[in-house]
Write a structure and sequence with these properties.
The structure holds 2 protein chains of 2 kinds.
Chain A lengths: L4 H13 L13 H9 L2 H4 L18 H13 L7 H5 L4 H12 L25 H13 L2 H4 L1 H4 L14 H12 L9 H9 L2 H13 L2
Helix pairs in contact in A: 1-4, 2-6, 4-6, 7-12, 10-12
Chain B lengths: L5 H14 L17 E5 L3 H13 L4 E5 L5 E2 L5 H4 L9 E2 L2 H5 L3 E3 L3 E5 L4 E4 L2 E4 L2 E4 L3 E3 L23 H12 L5 E5 L10 H16 L4 E5 L8 H10 L7 E4 L7 E5 L4 E4 L3 E3 L2 E4 L3 E3 L1 H5 L24 E3 L13 H19 L8 E11 L2 E12 L2 E9 L6 H23 L1
Parallel strand pairs in B: 1-2, 1-9, 2-5, 9-19, 11-12, 11-17, 12-13
Antiparallel strand pairs in B: 3-4, 6-7, 7-8, 10-18, 14-15, 15-16, 20-21, 21-22
Classes of the chains: A mainly alpha, B alpha/beta.
């Protein structure tokens, strides 16, 4: 399934229409349980969905029209992941819908950096380079990324995930994943065409732009 | 302070908050109303999360967290500290974040819990509660290995509660000569952080391989298998640790330790003895001390609970979360404690409002680092089915994974740490 808006809406619509849970899972699909389920995400994605970096995506306020199909793609394995596939399999359609709505209701709060990240760690953590971010801003326009990722990547219209202000290592990982033919990452046709053309260097610059644009 | 009704106690607690812990009995203008009072004992992954999420769900509930230490050192990711990959300071968290949520934090040692009268006693006073959350972590069985008592931990560290013990072991490993031998004594099940001893072994092997290549670590284990077994075994092979820098001796091959001699740094198994330069003993474990004070631990040393709410089956209105709980189906991990805390918080709020507890969701994700940029994980999503905690999904990282995959998981481990510590303490 490619995530163009039209097919996505059709899928979401079908899910809402057909989302009458017929099993015991229904007990976890109400509003209170949606929030209870969403709260368990905080151990990796941060309290109320604002992650503290360096490689974890913020999920606060991402639109349900994005979260619901993505969770289902994780669950089916259509969307490559290291761990999310293993987790998503624990949720029914109705539960995915309930927890996605709770996550969508959280507010994106700017993604403050954790000062502890600046301290010594065993891992290599990418830091935003302003010059590279400036180059990325130009590239994002030239390559028409900002045509859909409107408002400098801040848009959450319809099924559009916010990419601006995401943690840099997360963006770099995702760009690698999208470029890796073997992973067959689901993405809109136009996006795939542009990603195929882009060099790794260009995608790195665009990642720096998204990360810097808080 | 004595003979506290709920009302006068709330006054006192308000006073504590107002005057910045000048003392429990501090007189002050009362905060209005007859608020429900929740006491949380133990400010680690479980207790701190419970305090925060109760307050988050209902700011009108008065929450007091009693924790004897001013700072908390995270055990997760303290293994990298032992080999100089990480500063101990990064593991240190305070309670300012929780105070900002309106939680009163009292740094005192609990000396008594009366679950009949619903009172908790510390040196500073008596605290009445409507609901009590106990999250006291683990304590050690010092009578299990001959010669290994509390005094022995000064030289033969456990380093299984992060902080000063972590620093001692780090310095011992640092000071060890190249060509030295280290012994790690693994604990029997159940214990805090099932993959922890093996992550520790991996990182020490990595340290020897890169810094002291004539040295060796021997892991003596009273078990024949452990968490993430295949992933660790294959990692030890791939990373070139196995045999050369790291030798794991399972129970079946005489790994069970019966005695130690701290004076000579010698470890005895049923058939062998190991004299080492550095000895790290992770002792057998049971529920934290406060669980025994409260009388909520069973004869096996752990606290039985209702799996839907984490309320003790031995005392009403007492919720036991984290490593102390006998939560069959969940590991004794930081993430599980955080998840259990949220379930208990939701159940407590529902109960105070006279509503039924919501259906619980339990999640655990746990990363282990075997070398820089080499991470593995296990995940678990579970819920309540037929009165038991039942797995819905989860599992291990694949045995065959690309270096990119292992690199991502190592960085997700760091991300996990940042997120969960902020979720717990900020």
């Amino acid at each position: 399934m490619h995530l163009n808006k039209k097919s996505l809406l059709a899928v979401a619509g079908a899910m809402i229409a057909g989302g009458v849970a017929m099993n015991a899972d229904e007990a976890r699909a109400d509003m209170a349980s949606g929030l209870a389920m969403a709260n368990t995400c905080a151990g990796c994605h941060g309290t109320d969905g604002m992650a503290n970096g360096p490689a974890m995506p913020n999920i606060a306020g991402q639109p349900a029209n994005y979260l619901i199909p993505v969770m289902k793609e994780f669950r089916s394995g259509e969307r490559y992941s290291t761990i999310m596939g293993r987790i998503a399999k624990g949720y029914s359609d109705a539960e995915i819908e309930a927890l996605s709505k709770a996550v969508a209701g959280w507010k994106w709060t700017g993604g403050a950096e954790n000062p502890k990240l600046a301290m010594k760690t065993g891992e290599t953590i990418a830091m935003v380079k302003p010059a590279l971010a400036a180059e990325g801003e130009k590239l994002a326009k030239e390559m028409k990324c900002t045509k859909c990722h409107e408002d400098g990547g801040k848009s959450t219209e319809d099924d559009m995930p916010r990419v601006a202000g995401q943690h840099l290592d997360y963006l770099l990982f995702k760009m690698e994943d999208y470029k890796d033919e073997a992973l067959k990452m689901p993405q809109p046709k136009k996006m795939k065409k542009r990603m195929d053309k882009a060099s790794a260097k260009e995608l790195e610059a665009i990642s720096h732009f998204w990360a810097a644009n808080k | 302070m004595s003979k506290l009704t709920r009302r006068s106690f709330v006054k006192a607690a308000g006073g504590v908050a107002a005057v910045g812990l000048a003392g429990c009995g501090a007189a002050s203008p009362s905060i209005a109303g007859n608020k429900a009072q929740v006491i949380v004992v133990g400010g680690g992954y479980g207790g701190a999360t419970a305090a925060k999420y109760i307050k988050k769900a209902d700011p009108n509930v008065s929450v007091i967290l009693i924790e004897q230490n001013k700072h908390y050192y995270s055990c997760p990711l303290s293994n990298p500290v032992l080999v100089g990959m990480r500063d101990l300071e990064v593991q240190k968290w305070g309670y300012e974040g929780l105070k900002k949520h309106g939680i009163t934090v009292v740094h005192e040692t609990v000396t008594g819990v009366d679950t009949g009268a619903k009172k908790v006693t510390t040196a500073g006073g008596v605290f009445s509660y409507d609901k009590l959350v106990l999250s006291p972590g683990v304590s050690f069985n010092y009578d299990a290995i001959e010669g290994y008592d509390e005094a022995a931990t000064k030289t033969m560290t456990h380093a299984w509660k992060a902080g000063p013990q972590t620093a001692i072991l780090r310095d011992q490993i640092d000071a060890m000569k190249d060509g030295g031998t280290m012994v790690l004594v693994a604990p029997p099940n159940p214990f805090r952080c099932p993959p922890g001893p093996y992550e520790r072994a991996s990182l020490i092997a990595h340290y020897f391989k890169t810094k002291k290549p004539k040295s060796k670590l021997i892991v003596l284990d009273p078990k024949d298998k452990f968490s993430k077994f295949g992933l660790f075994q294959s990692g030890w092979e791939k990373l070139g640790y196995k045999g050369k820098y790291l030798e794991w001796v399972p129970a079946g091959e005489g790994g069970k330790v019966t005695r130690v001699d701290p004076k000579t740094n010698t470890v005895y198994t049923e058939m062998d003895e190991f004299k080492a330069d550095v000895v790290n003993v992770i002792p057998p474990q049971k529920a934290g001390k406060v669980a025994f004070l409260a009388g909520v631990a069973n004869d096996k040393g752990w606290c039985p609970i209702d799996f839907k709410t984490f309320e003790s089956t031995m005392a009403k209105d007492v919720y036991v979360i984290g490593d102390s709980s006998a939560a069959a189906g969940l590991p004794k991990s930081g993430y599980a404690a955080n998840s259990e805390a949220k379930v208990a918080a939701a159940a407590i709020i529902a109960s105070l409002q006279g509503k039924p507890a919501p259906m619980p969701t339990y999640v655990n994700t746990c990363y282990s680092i075997l070398a820089p940029n080499y991470g593995i994980s296990v995940a678990l999503v579970s819920t309540l089915k037929d009165g038991k905690i039942t797995k819905l999904s989860g599992g291990l990282s694949p045995m065959e994974a690309t270096p990119a995959f292992r690199h991502q998981e190592a960085l997700y481990a760091e991300s996990w740490y940042q997120a969960i510590m902020n979720d717990t303490f900020a």
